From TrEMBL, chains A, B:
Keywords: Hydrolase. The lineage of its organism: Bacteria, Pseudomonadati, Myxococcota, Myxococcia, Myxococcales. Residues 81-323 form the Fumarylacetoacetase-like C-terminal domain. This is Putative fumarylacetoacetate hydrolase. GO terms for molecular function: hydrolase activity. Residues 1-77 form the Fumarylacetoacetase N-terminal domain. InterPro entries: FAA_hydro_N (IPR041072), Fumarylacetoacetase-like_C (IPR011234), Fumarylacetoacetase_C_sf (IPR036663).
Amino acid sequence: MKLATLKDGTRDGRLIVVKRDNSAYALATNVALTLQAALDDWDAKEPQLRALAQQLEAGAVQSRPLDVKALHAPLPRAYEWVDGSAYINHVLLVRKARNAEPPATLRTDPLVYQGGSGDFLAPTQDIPLRDEAWGLDFESEVCVVLGDTPMGTKAEDADKHIKLVMIANDVSLRNLIPEELAKGFGFFQSKPATAFGPFALTPDELGAAWKDGRVHLRMRSTLNGQLVGDADAGPEMHFSFRDLIQHLTRTRAFTAGTLLGSGTVSNEDRSRGISCLAERRMIETIDEGKPKTAFMKPGDTIEIEMLDGEGHSLFGRISQTVVKAP
Amino acid sequence: MKLATLKDGTRDGRLIVVKRDNSAYALATNVALTLQAALDDWDAKEPQLRALAQQLEAGAVQSRPLDVKALHAPLPRAYEWVDGSAYINHVLLVRKARNAEPPATLRTDPLVYQGGSGDFLAPTQDIPLRDEAWGLDFESEVCVVLGDTPMGTKAEDADKHIKLVMIANDVSLRNLIPEELAKGFGFFQSKPATAFGPFALTPDELGAAWKDGRVHLRMRSTLNGQLVGDADAGPEMHFSFRDLIQHLTRTRAFTAGTLLGSGTVSNEDRSRGISCLAERRMIETIDEGKPKTAFMKPGDTIEIEMLDGEGHSLFGRISQTVVKAP
């Protein structure tokens, strides 16, 4: 089942079910007005939404052509956005880039941060940037939407709390990170609004690509029309979403609709390219002594999507342009 | 105007207006079902809620006796919980306690962290603790509820975005903080669910005590029946809520219902006592070479409230007991 949120002038938009080929949708507001409302009562709503999705595939319900520009993020605002950094190759490169040591517990204790979740960007929404010197970067990520997840959840029990899978652009302001982290309280100002891909899929839609709490698909990042990354999101995700959920719930519970991100998808094999510019800059520094790639500036565009084996865009395409903000 | 949220078995409870003396309430669900719904449409809802509050004071509307145990946190879940650390004395003591240097920008650049906001504790809800060794501490704080607050808001324009004032117990797990901060991604596991006081007040309810973006009232913390802190929340709040809002909005916007905390209220004058145990332990270390006060353990209770000049509990009382959790 593939869900999305149609802009309708309200804060949370309207829930729609999307055809598997992304061509059309049916309003799901008879089942639940919003995606958050569906998640709040998932056990009751999921079967009804699945029935509607089947009707849509069969042409047995009124449908309309889908325009990605008419979509919000699946959750335009959420109660929590917790983002991991589960790809070891990314952690090593980015820490090296800012002359910071990787944590001693790199491979045993997951890295996660609490992100802002009140005001997300839509899949095709411009990225506002007040100061080019802040070093705007994209980060192509996979994420999952949790149902109610109790404190003390174990990794082996985590799958049942994963309701949906999405993709994200975890926009970062690289040049603000060092001064923010030096204060010891996390990334705050260096993580502006995050954008999410158009469609939220139930894990079963991924078939065999959803395995061991990981998404075994390729994450394609296209910068200014040029494919810069085609990384496998599966095997090198050192901590799976199961592991991350166990980590998250050590000291508290999470409510339905919590978003949990993988961190930047990253492969050791350099031929797979990059899912953020910080990695390319670090590789340039290693190879040539200094970075030559600039961070993003107004006018630059980033497109992010995941294709299945037949080349279909499973989650739809994030397509954003940086614009100067006042 | 004094607002609160009645438990009714739903996730967000039901909005009520509370009498100024805390004795009775009237259901506000004819105006807005929930506090978040009221905040989402504040310009329209605020005058209607104020009218209801006036009727309640005048005995012109049906009211019921108020039992604080029947209340949720005013927002049982929120879209963001951003907590500052605006009392310099607290920063200095707590950093000293964990042998960490205060940041070089201590007095010029506010400290804020992004907290979890999906699952808050009610004012009288037990604090679940899975492991006593984690070092559970209370933190008595003031906080404000924001309306929609755009990116780039200046301190001098910030007041209009502050819709409500509340108090909070920003529960902390002191012994998990060093290892979490060492990883560089913030407090994550060391900040379990936060509790909030029963009542959310419009700033005008504070009269002259609401001044320069600060709450000039005393924050009383009572541990196991003994008053341990009676600190003035006003003058030593180095960064006002106005300053914090300017800091927050540097790189992104915030949605209505965002919660912004002051950090632990703290005074240089030791006779005012403490608003968290970490401070007392540091003072003991300075005076006697080592801390002798233990962190909280199952069975311990903490009560937090703010009194006005006549001794009335403005925001109601947070009253929580630590319980062993599985």
